């Protein structure tokens, strides 16, 4: 299992969405929609979005430019808009994880949801703000144009054949826009979703309109699959060493039995991964996530009261032993000696099983999350924390210390400017005629009221637009001194009512000539730890 180096907001968010996020629900079990599957729609939009890549200039690629390209004939189909509506509706984009990352994540879930391989996921794509070139291949184009399109997208001829086969075995061709019978899945195959066009093409009975459609010019799959003299498909046939054994079976079941699921899966996974990671050359993606990080923490949350900080955090442990107990330890600030040399320590207050997405389940992982509520002397404060996982089986405890450095708390800004999670709350406001919900966010600033000011911006993922492009909004939220939380322990408290649609906050405080900034505070995640109160008026 991989180790995670904290802090890395993008990588931890990517792991969280891939293994614990809610998006997979939509494609779990490969459900049908609009004469096809949602998975096929999500995979196709990823390919079409990527198709704007130009390997020569290093521009375009998977960048969500598809949101601005839907009026083109090459992007015909309700599936495109529906897919983007799916992604918008989940409100999962963040200031650093945009629609392009959502499209890639969707494709990963789509393939697994239909029983396909797990594609290692990288994040960090950058969303385009305008349309890219109209370079999606179309069925009526000739083979030379297709070869050139794929070259431009970074794929050679062999890869083109394989990628089209991989894509079109998951997808079909819908009758609405491409009228022909398309009930093409090979149900009896274990890997039923991955052989649609390859096998039908091989047995000459395909109903894939792109192979035998009424219009010769749109038989692009036929041209592509036969463009190498059927070498790729001959290879498909010879994946199994004992192919002659099955010579009396019809070709459909022969392919089902002979084709090595692993080889086909590996080829498709590798090509899909390259497809999803085709981005402008200026974009840097994270290393691929191939398995859940063994240990990841919840970003610590703080509050201050009566001379103590309360710090909330949690540790996710993958494949934990059933008898494990976990302690959090911390060291105080240099020079302070409240904690002993071995550190202050607290045992986890509770643990709960982690419910993995279809990706984690497919990979066979389990995990538990251990929660901590540490009371920290505010004078000696905290410089870093770490964990001890004790399996209680006589073995030495495992020290989880972020690669040796510990999880370091910078005083500035962590303990000079923070959202105070005990003083903040979720509020259900009920009047005789309305019901509303918002956060009362309380921000603690180390300083005095005469010299301190604070301001905040909120990030809202959900776009209210009825049609793409779906883009997030950022609004400034004014912070006022909080009369219900008078100054205490050197801190003053500001407050604002914040819509529950806001998921991330950037906060700045100026104290005299000193400026503190907290960027990308995950309000959505912190909300799990806020008290919710009901107010009637
Ligand atoms: C020469 C290249 C290609 C051509 C001409 C082509 C053409 C088409 C056409 C005409 C459809 C039917 C669309 C509809 O029914 O609305 C389709 C569906 C699809 N294509 Fe391609 N395609 C190409 C390459 C690819 C590649 C490389 C992928 C890789 C992921 C891919 C994935 C899909 C999927 C998943 C569907 C099914 C979509 C659905 O059911 O909603 N295609 N393609």
3D architecture notes:
- The structure is a single chain.
- The protein contains 15 helices and 22 strands.
- The protein starts with 8 loop residues before the first helix and ends with a strand.
- A hairpin with a 2-residue loop joins strand 1 and strand 2.
- With 537 residues, it is α+β, with helices and mostly antiparallel strands.
- The longest helix is centred in the middle third of the chain and has 16 residues.
- Helices cover 26% and strands 25% of the residues.
- It folds into three domains: 268 residues, Peroxidase, domain 1; 115 residues, Immunoglobulin-like (Sandwich); 120 residues, Sandwich (Immunoglobulin-like).
- Bound molecules: protoporphyrin IX containing FE (HEM).
- Protoporphyrin IX containing FE (HEM) binds next to helix 2, helix 6 and helix 9.
What is the CA-based Rg, rounded?
27 Å
Number of strands: 22
The share of residues in extended strands comes to 15-25%
Number of helices: 15
What is the overall pLDDT average?
86
- Biggest sheet statistics: 6 strands, mixed
GO molecular function: heme binding; metal ion binding; peroxidase activity
Keywords: Heme, Iron, Metal-binding, Oxidoreductase, Peroxidase, Signal
Protein name: Peroxidase
EC number: 1.11.1.-
Task: Set down the secondary structure blueprint.
Elements: H1 9-20, E1 32-33, E2 36-37, H2 38-50, H3 78-89, H4 99-113, H5 143-153, H6 157-170, H7 196-202, H8 209-212, H9 220-226, H10 231-237, H11 251-258, H12 261-276, E3 295-297, E4 301-305, E5 308-318, E6 325-331, E7 344-347, E8 350-353, H13 358-363, E9 367-377, E10 384-390, E11 398-400, E12 407-408, H14 411-415, E13 417-419, E14 425-430, E15 435-446, E16 452-460, E17 473-478, E18 480-481, E19 491-499, E20 502-511, E21 514-522, H15 523-526, E22 531-536
Parallel strand pairs: 14-22
Antiparallel strand pairs: 1-2, 3-5, 4-5, 5-9, 6-7, 6-10, 8-9, 10-11, 10-12, 13-15, 14-15, 15-19, 16-17, 16-20, 18-19, 20-21
The chain binds protoporphyrin IX containing FE (HEM).
């Amino acid at each position: 299992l991989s180790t995670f180096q904290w802090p890395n907001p993008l990588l931890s968010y990517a792991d969280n969405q891939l293994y614990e996020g809610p998006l997979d629900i939509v494609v779990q079990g490969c459900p049908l929609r609009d004469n096809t599957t949602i998975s096929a729609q999500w995979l196709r939009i990823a390919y079409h979005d990527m198709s704007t890549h130009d390997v020569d200039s290093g521009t375009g690629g998977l960048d969500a430019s598809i949101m601005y390209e839907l009026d083109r004939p090459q992007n015909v189909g309700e599936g495109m808009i529906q897919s983007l509506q799916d992604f918008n509706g989940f409100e999962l984009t963040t200031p650093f994880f945009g629609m392009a990352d959502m499209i890639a994540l969707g494709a990963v879930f789509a393939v697994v949801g239909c029983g396909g391989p797990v594609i290692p996921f990288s994040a960090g794509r950058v969303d385009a703000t305008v349309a890219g070139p109209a370079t999606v291949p179309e069925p009526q184009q000739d083979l030379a144009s297709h070869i050139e399109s794929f070259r431009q997208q970074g794929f050679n001829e062999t890869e083109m054949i394989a990628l089209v086969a991989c894509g079109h075995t998951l997808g079909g061709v819908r009758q609405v826009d491409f009228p022909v019978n398309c009930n093409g899945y090979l149900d009896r195959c274990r890997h039923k979703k991955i052989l649609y066009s390859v096998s039908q093409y091989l047995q000459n009975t395909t109903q894939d309109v792109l192979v035998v459609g009424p219009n010769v010019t749109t038989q692009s799959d036929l041209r592509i699959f036969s463009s190498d003299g059927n070498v790729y498909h001959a290879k498909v046939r010879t994946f199994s060493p004992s192919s002659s054994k099955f010579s009396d079976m019809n070709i459909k079941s022969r392919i089902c039995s002979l084709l090595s699921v692993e080889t086909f899966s590996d080829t498709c996974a590798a090509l899909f991964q390259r497809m999803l990671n085709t981005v402008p050359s200026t974009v840097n993606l994270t290393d691929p996530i191939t398995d859940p990080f063994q240990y990841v923490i919840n970003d610590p949350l703080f509050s201050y009261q009566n001379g103590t900080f309360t710090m909330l955090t949690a540790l996710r442990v993958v494949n934990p032993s059933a008898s494990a107990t976990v302690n959090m330890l911390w060291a105080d600030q240099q020079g302070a000696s409240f904690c002993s040399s071995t550190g202050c320590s607290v045992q986890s207050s509770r643990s709960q099983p982690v419910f993995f997405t279809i990706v984690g389940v497919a990979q066979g992982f389990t995990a538990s999350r251990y929660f901590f509520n540490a009371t920290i002397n505010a004078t000696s404060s905290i410089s870093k924390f770490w964990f001890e996982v004790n399996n209680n089986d006589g073995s030495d405890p495992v020290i989880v210390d972020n690669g040796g450095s510990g999880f370091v708390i910078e005083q500035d800004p962590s303990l000079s400017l923070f959202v105070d999670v005990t003083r903040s709350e979720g509020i259900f406001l009920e009047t005789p005629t309305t019901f509303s919900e918002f956060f009362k966010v309380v921000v603690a600033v180390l300083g005095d009221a005469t010299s301190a000011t604070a301001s905040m911006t909120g990030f809202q993922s959900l776009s209210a637009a009825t049609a793409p492009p779906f883009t997030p909004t950022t609004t400034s939220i004014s912070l006022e001194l909080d009369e219900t939380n008078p100054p205490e322990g050197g801190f003053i408290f500001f407050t604002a009512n914040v819509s529950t649609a806001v998921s991330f906050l950037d906060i700045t405080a100026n104290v005299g000539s000193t400026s503190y900034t907290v960027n990308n505070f995950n309000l959505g995640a912190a909300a799990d730890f806020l008290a919710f109160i009901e107010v009637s008026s």
